[in-house]
Design goal:
heterodimer, A: mainly alpha, Fumarate Reductase Iron-sulfur Protein, Chain B, domain 2, B: alpha/beta, FAD/NAD(P)-binding domain, 5-stranded parallel sheet, 8 helices
Chain lengths: ~210, ~425
Amino acid sequence: MSDLNQQMAERYKNNFLKEIEEQAEMGEWVKMCMQCGLCSGSCPTHFHSGWDHPPQEIFMLIRAGKREEVLNSNGMYMCTSCYNCYVRCPRKVPVTHVMHGIAEYAYKMGRAAKAQPTMHLSKVFWTNATKYGRVNEVQLTQSLYFKDGLAAGIKKGLEMKDVALGLVKAKRLNPLEALGIGHKCKDLDGIHRMLAKAYELEAQRKGRDTSKA
Amino acid sequence: MTSVVATNQTILVVGGGISGMTAALEAAETGKQVVLVERNPYLGGRTIQLYKYFPKMCHPTCGLEINLRRLKANPRIQVLTMAEVSGIRGERGSYSVSVKLKPRYVNENCTACGECAKAVSTEIDDAFNYNLGKTKAAYLPNDYAYPQRYVIDSSIVGTAEGEAAKAACKYGAIDLDMREEELTLNAGAIVWATGWKPYEAEKIVYYGYDRFPNVITNVEFERLADPHGPTGGRILRPSDGKEARNIAFIQCAGSRDENHLRHCSRFCCMGSLKQTNYVQDQYGDAGKSTIYYIDIRAIDRFEDFYAKVKANPNVKFVKSKVARITEDKDGNPVCNGVDIEGYHRYANAHDLVVLAVGMEPEVNGVSIPAEVMSDSSGFIMADPANAGIFGAGCATNALDVNRAVQSATAAALRAIQVVNKVARAEV
């Protein structure tokens, strides 16, 4: 259990709904769900093997206080952000955003499975983009291709070889980015300070003690 | 020229459905002068378009017949059909109201013999049957129409067809020179009973009402089941006329939905439960109904009715809001969604899908004076402290017939109090 996880479990004890409302982005919408099932019915993923809990079930689990079951679920990472549920929800619950909010919270609590591809992509993308102030496409692609080991990475790289060469020829991809050279933003330090401030404000708003986390 | 006697002690009732008729009768029977204005060529509104009422499963024509008899016997009510209020000025106790009268092209000499309809071959959409069928351009709006008088559709006026209809009339009842008229009349109080309209189902894009012929609305289903309807009371599906024995009812089609109607329309759960009886009566054990619902709202004493339908093995309940309707290769509508009780994904084919569409308040663009306000769904709310305009029935809320009648009686009483004050009979 991470420190933050312990801190939160302690603070909210048996009120998981309140925890989600206060700690997860868009969590305040969870109580608006009326369990009609339109979100799951509209979902283009059709809950293939990965989907252990569809959205309205996750909402109901939260209300039932099933903390472990929700935080360990992989349901929220299966969302493809098609926004079908969001536009159709009769209660105007921004289902897509709520799912992302819960996913992010579960990650913060140290619960998301390391190999979960959506989680992996989000994490790699975020680290990459905040490091340079812009997405370093070569490094991003590398870290995705080599996720499952060296051999798998080389195989995938060879598969995509022609596309990559085409992009380089059209000056849409700079191979030097692999070394951290390439386009960056003007005020990288400014971006980092801005992000630090945002983290500080978030911790303040959510009443989190960041020194322990 | 139509003449109407009205003073500032007259009560104007706008809308001649069950609420408007009730308000007019209740007021007139206490001795007040009443003018009843109705947009259609007949009275009875949406109620007369029903096959049966819940929970007693009796025919609306029965209740309406009693009201019509009261109406015919009462000299204090003046009825204006094909009439719409176009403006209201003034204040409580002295309103001045303009009313537009559309030409019927048929005068009171009409005996409803039907010779004009025989002489005419042009057909128009049958609005009474929600355009499920066609009717002649010289028509009696429905069998129980009051006034029992034919109407000539304006599309054949000025044509040979119109002249043929006129020539066929033995009573000199057809007057093709009628023009639209505008009247101004006085009223001390106004009862606003303009009722409701079914929500436009095509707006619920994922149900494909405008793409799939076998997806219909609950009000259309009433007409299909009615012996006076377009199929003679046989429940046949529109695409191929096949007997619809396996019928899905989708609840909250547009209601309780922030993207459509935000209110619960209240009558649709009972409406669908009632309609499963039509299926059972017509096809016996071969008739299967499936109700897809969020939760069944059979309010207070209707719980008994719900329990009876639930006990019927031919009626299945699926707790789920259907997410999408598709069509299979045989033209059967297929309901797709997720069952909340167990989270199973389903794709069920049916012969016919009935969308239980909700009540949208009827608005006709009249500028009602400022003391009348609307709620967030568009239903009108009057401020009893200063108003002389009172909402009645479904103009004020989503109500079933029974509650609409109660609401109309209350509105009539409020209107009576206003005209009594005008007459100084009450302070």
